[in-house]
Amino acid sequence: MTADVRDELIRSGLISGERVDRFVRRGHFVYESGDHGDTWLELEVLHWEPPRMRRATAAFAGGLRKYNPEVICSPLIGGALVGQMLADALGVAFVYAERHGRAGNVRYAIPAGARALINGKRVVIVDDVINAGSASLATLEDVRACGGAAVALAALMIRAAARSSLAAKAGIPVESVLALDWNIWKSAECPVCEA
Fold it and tell me: Which of 191, 161, 188, 160 lies closest to 8 in space, CA to CA?
């Protein structure tokens, strides 16, 4: 991990100094989207310290108030841990979307009992980390299918290069506390697989 990424993670307050080296792994990984990449974030470490997460989500809430959300919707599991804290900080409702399927063919669905609750509501879709955005986009699709008015996508951390393409695909703004750089490739273009 480069010193600048390490320093940025610590400066953001999301990861404590003694945990930051256990948070980022380098190698070859296949993501939920089916894409390949050189970085894996150990999200369990991110959620290890609830007081730290509470402070981070409270600060994050300040930047999301401008969207006047009525509901926070998050993909399970990590996104929902952040989303529920964020909903509490904003004083709004919370709902999650469950994952169905396998890598490369994943969809997210809001549970049947909560689907009608978001109809006509202003919704921010929140994840803990956005890599390619497949979980966020799939959650967004189901929010819209339920009649929710999605107003933004948000994450504590996002792969910096994904922000503009994700905003274009979603048609709404993308917000984050922190933007980091790492490589991602379509499976057929992965240089690690080719080697």
Answer: 160
